């Protein structure tokens, strides 16, 4: 849409290869269809469940049992997503961007072939190309995985309640999904191969795990599934999962209605003909290395988003990179995308917002003696009356002693962490120091004043 | 069989007609009432109607096109009228594909390209 503003002739080729179970979706990419948007809505559904329980202590009266209907939630979520898909179609058309629901692949210099779902092929040429094909969930490569397991691509539109679920993985996707599934009342187990939330501050990752465990989610640590078999067909059916310890020969078995795989995502760069135009990719990870102008090794081909090597896999980063790229190409701008101090939030039952360095990364980069960590537990006022945990919420900032105690890491674990973090991210972009933070008077009574 | 048109007035008649054709693609155009000379109180509806009619041949086979007059201006302006409350309509004219989130509102209905896209989308 940005390029069309500058009167360029633009075409978008978007195509979703169906999941092993036949699932597909509309225009908008992962975030809109099978990522952030449905995730946050379902997380909200779980939070509302908790709120209903808390509300009794605040005086609300209603019958003992309150139940959750999966189909009602899924229908509302899918309806909203459908309106977003439609909105994008209208927006592209209004801005005169040609849209084809077809699979694009390079066949030669400056040329792509687009194949639609009926197999009809068309060729297109262009001056410049932008690759933003994203990633798809990885499968385990064990017997029964593609036939019986689901991934996040299937979860948000699952036409039946998943029931007793085994979540394989310890990524934020795994923990967020496990979190809201348990929050709506399902029996959830998480199978973790080694650590939780690799790449995130481990001190906080462990607190998140502990909280989830204390609130009814089972964790099986240091095991990996080696086989999935179907015991009973159905929606959902019953699956038997056999798993092996990573530390020995112990084998365990478990029965679940649904097995959700969330062990990682692979870039969609292997089947789009990049070899035909000479674009170099990292053979091992499939990611595309680019320079700081998002340009690949082939000057007229650019790339943004999750497929980039060594860059953050976040929707707003991709959007920002894309907009700035187009402005540099067609509006004479020079601003490059700033990948430093990008705030993120993990929407686990106890939300985690972060910006900047984790404690481990700060120690590694600056040395333990050069950083100072300030931290505190806090008890949200809203949690006092319903007697919710008083020592779980936590905030931590990491400062660089050698640079005026500049805040280089911000971490908060508690309700509305996303909302809290956004403002502090802006402050960090301006280079806020500990002294400035201290001299900012707090708003009371809110969690953020800590 | 090609497509057919049904003309209705008011919310109850609209819902009854839509239910009758459950299972077939249903498109609906909502406009303000017309006076004795056949002119609507809603100027945008006057502009949109010919544009929409010209694209009707693009609807899939077996489609039903419901042309619905919502009521007079006063009824429409009431924030609690049934079209606003139950169908979540926010303005007239509105052209929508019944049972989906796909719709075009007000000036969007003047654009033949968008109307065609609504009729041929899947």
Automatic annotation (TrEMBL), chain A:
Signal peptide: none annotated. This is Thioredoxin reductase 1, cytoplasmic. Its EC number is 1.11.1.2, 1.8.1.9. PROSITE patterns: PYRIDINE_REDOX_1. Disulfide bonds join 31-36. GO terms for biological process: cell redox homeostasis; cellular response to oxidative stress; glutathione metabolic process. The active site is at residue 444. The keyword Disulfide bond applies. Transmembrane segments: none annotated. FAD binds at residues 40, 104, 306. It comes from the Eukaryota. Its cofactor is FAD. Binds 1 FAD per subunit. NAD(+) binds at residues 169-176, 264. It is an enzyme of class 1 (oxidoreductase). Belongs to the class-I pyridine nucleotide-disulfide oxidoreductase family. Reduces disulfideprotein thioredoxin (Trx) to its dithiol-containing form. Homodimeric flavoprotein involved in the regulation of cellular redox reactions, growth and differentiation. Contains a selenocysteine residue at the C-terminal active site that is essential for catalysis. Also has reductase activity on hydrogen peroxide (H2O2). One of its GO terms (cellular component) is mitochondrion. Residues 2-322 form the FAD/NAD(P)-binding domain. The lineage of its organism: Eukaryota, Metazoa, Chordata, Craniata, Vertebrata. Keywords: Disulfide bond, FAD, Flavoprotein, NAD, NADP, Nucleotide-binding, Oxidoreductase, Redox-active center, Selenocysteine. One of its GO terms (molecular function) is flavin adenine dinucleotide binding. Residues 342-449 form the Pyridine nucleotide-disulphide oxidoreductase dimerisation domain. It catalyses: [thioredoxin]-dithiol + NADP(+) = [thioredoxin]-disulfide + NADPH + H(+); H2O2 + NADPH + H(+) = NADP(+) + 2 H2O. It comes from Eolophus roseicapilla (Galah cockatoo).
UniProtKB/TrEMBL annotation, chain B:
Gene3D superfamilies: Glutaredoxin. CDD domains: TRP14_like (cd02952). Its main location: cytoplasm. It is found in: Cytoplasm. Keywords: Cytoplasm, Disulfide bond, Redox-active center. Residues 8-121 form the Thioredoxin domain. InterPro entries: Thioredoxin-like_sf, TXNDC17-like, TXNDC17_dom. One of its GO terms (cellular component) is cytosol. One of its GO terms (molecular function) is protein-disulfide reductase [NAD(P)H] activity. The keyword Transmembrane does not apply. It comes from the Eukaryota. Belongs to the thioredoxin family. This is Thioredoxin domain-containing protein 17. The gene is Txd17.
